[in-house]
Amino acid sequence: MFSDLKRIGLEACVLIAFGALFGLTLNHQLVVDAFSGQLVSPLRPATQESVPVALPLPVLIDEVQQVMASGGLIVDARNPELFAMGHIDGALSLALVDSDALLPDFLARISKDQVIVTYCSGFGCPDSFDLGVLLIELGYQDVRVFEGGYPEWRDAGLPVAGGSQ
Amino acid sequence: MKRFLYHLVRLMLALVFIYAGAVKMQDVVTFAGYVAAYQILPYAANYLVAATLPYIEFIAGVLLLLNVRIRPALVVIGSMTLVFMVALISVLFRGLEIDCGCFDPGGGQDVTAGVALLRDIGLMVLVVLTWWLRTSGRDEERGTWDEETLS
Predict the structure, then answer these.
(1) CB nearest A31 (choices: B48, B100, B101)
(2) Chain B residues close to A43, C-beta within 8 Å
(3) A145 bridge partner residues
């Protein structure tokens, strides 16, 4: 019975090792980039043929604060309802879903050399990145993405506005 | 009857984990984002988990599907489900919003931590049931089940 369990445990370990090895073989570049501190773009690497020339650079929460302090613009890519429920204090709402309607006004008001940081509902939310790509395509020169988004900002206890927060 | 039930739950688990693994393999970077949203691991470790976990899930699912190395596969799947449950409980306790909450072009709904936890409990029941049916079935019908394919 004991040797049976030992064998099962050993085989389970082999299974995990095999799976991990398989995964690392296919994704080693991603893991190496992540561990070497290079920020990894949330876009899938080189699968699309029409990748834009420049992609928005992902930034961490400290850098968002630095950008804010130096006069950069923080842009909320979430829909207006979520923005109303709570957003980063000082952020401008530019919902990706309404971008067609909102962008003409945005383009008229914000100069192309303005540093912009986009955010949405955190990791796994693609809107901030997509909006960042859109802004770069429209000619904005320094667009960055705060991947942690509103949840990370709020959970860090940093200033928020709107809603009952 | 027991044998039929065994194959039924085995195949259900197999399909769930093959699907779960295959979907995540398609977009490892996005999955890393979901792992990071749990705020448990350091930044780079999220990518390490995302780069390996889907493949382990997939291989364990394939073993269940093929009806080979069932118990090691169940140990792996059970352990992973247990880890997911602990992570989800920690999310619930910390009150994190791990839902995307943003516009989804696919129209799919995000699953909240509570629902995901209930789903994991269901999976855990299936894992235990498969183990039990596998073990008791072999004891009762020793010699009639093919030892080679079931071991």
Answers:
(1) B48
(2) 29
(3) A58, A118
Residues of B in contact with A123 (CB under 8 A): 32-34, 36-37
E strand or H helix that includes residue A68: helix A61-69
Locate the chain B residue with the closest alpha carbon to A1: B135
Token pair 């976990």 is found at: B53
The tokens for B93 are 């306790």
Geometric angle at alpha carbon A26, from B18 and A34, rounded to 5°:
110
With an 8 Å Cβ cutoff, are B51 and A123 in contact?
Answer: no
Cβ B65 vs Cβ B8: under 8 Å: no
Predicted complex ipTM: 0.83
pLDDT in tens, A61-99: 998 999 999 999 999 999 898 899 899 999 999 999 888
Angle between helices B70-94 and B2-26 (to 10 degrees): 60
A116: phi > 0 → left, psi -120 to 50 → alpha, else beta; which?
beta
Do A77 and A127 touch, CB atoms closer than 8 A? yes
Residue A76: φ, ψ to 5°: -95, 120
B95 class by beta-carbon count within 10 Å (0-12 exposed, 13-18 middle, 19+ buried): exposed
Residue in A82, A95, A151 closest to B96 by CB: A151
Dist CA A108 CA A113 (whole Å)? 13
Comparing alpha-carbon positions, the chain B residue that sits nearest to A40 is: B29
A151 contacts in chain B (CB < 8 Å): 37, 96-98
